[in-house]
Amino acid sequence: MKTAVACLGCIVLALFVMYICTNMMKFNRTVVEGLTSGNSSTPDQLLKDIKTMKTKLVDDLHINKYKNEYHKILLGTEDVLHLKMLQNLKTAIDNKKIDDPKTLSSLAELESAKSALKDLDEFLIHFKSS
Predict the structure, then answer these.
(1) Does residue 40 belong to any structural domain of this protein?
(2) For residues 130 and 64, is the Cβ–Cβ distance under 8 A?
(3) What secondary structure letter does DSSP report for 38?
């Protein structure tokens, strides 16, 4: 009796493992490398999509109308970043942690943000909505 129950249990376990494996194989066939599936767009379609996105953003931001205001926003933000850097330096000196990796990392992140603002300013200077 115990042998029959053990054999039945082994058979059920084997069937369950086969079921799981076949489902995994079916799922594996539906997944495309790079986590993309379905239709791949042509370069012409991608270009059209990018132009549509650009037009929508230009319409939403009204860059030609508010270019000076955006420039002032960038300058103000850059001032805030400079002040934040000074504040971090002051705090680090007060706590005698000027060489602390967190302080240095914070300064590097703020400098990176300043660089991004300069790139944005350059973009605004040369922006053409066409």
Answers:
(1) no
(2) no
(3) S
Query: Total structural domains in the chain?
Result: 1
What is the helix (H) or strand (E) element at residue 36, kind and residue range?
Answer: none
Q: Please check whether residue 103 is in contact with residue 92, taking contact to mean a CB–CB distance below 8 angstroms.
A: yes
Which structural domain, as residue segments, surrounds residue 81? 62-130
Higher-confidence residue: 65 or 17?
A: 65
pLDDT tens-digit map of 27-52: 766 665 555 555 677 888 999 999 99
pTM of the model: 0.59
Determine, yes or no, domain membership for 44.
Answer: no
Q: Per the structure block, which two tokens stand in for 73?
A: 């926003």
Per-residue tokens: 32: 């495309």
Q: Are 129 and 66 in contact (CB under 8 A)?
A: no
Instruction: Give the number of other CB atoms < 10 A from CB of residue 117.
Output: 16
Among 79, 78, 100, residue whose Cα is nearest residue 89? 100
